[in-house]
Amino acid sequence: MPTPTTTPTPAPTANGFTFKEWEEHPVGPEGVFPRLAHAKVTNAFTGALTAPGTTCTYTVAYTGDTAGTFTGMELVTGAVDGREGSFVLEERGTFDATGTHCRFTVVPGSGTGGLTGLTGSGSFAHQHGDTSVEYVFDYAFPAADRSA
To answer: pLDDT per residue over 84-116, tens digit each?
Structure first.
């Protein structure tokens, strides 16, 4: 996603989020693999990205009892570096019995309000049993917005 008119943040920022809600529904028969499920998730973010409750939906492909892949879209309403607005994250990841690995990107053109023009990407790794997840989010705003 080339954005020649952006000024990047000085370095990736480590932050945290927690799962507030997880509601999963199977698609098709249970107990067979591969199988699909849809999940509705609410997360709470703190740090440079603050959002008390996001809206996220995943499609999960189980290849075993505790392994598979997922894709999702997460609507984030909150603030990045104090700039308020909304944007969407596109997420892709894998999971197994030990945890989850995910990479995400800001959907181009999805920023609103003070987050208009936001670009970025990041990742997280979650180990089962952890109540908080650390993530890295490397983001940029359009150059014209940085001087305002």
So the answer is: 999 999 999 999 999 999 999 999 999 999 999
Q: Do 139 and 106 form a contact (C-beta atoms < 8 A)?
A: yes
**CA 45 to CA 16: how far, in whole Å?**
6
> What is 44-90 written as a DSSP string?
EEESSEEBS--EEEEEEEEEETTEEEEEEEEEEEEEETTEEEEEEEE
Greater pLDDT, 5 or 36: 36
Cα–Cα distance for residue pair 38/115, rounded to 1 Å: 29
Candidates 84, 5, 99; CA nearest to 49 is 84
pTM of the model: 0.84
Q: How far is CA 43 from the centre of its chain?
A: 9
N- to C-terminal Cα separation, the chain: 24
pLDDT digits (tens, 9 = 90+) for 133-145: 999 999 999 886 4
Which position has the token pair 């670009």? 119
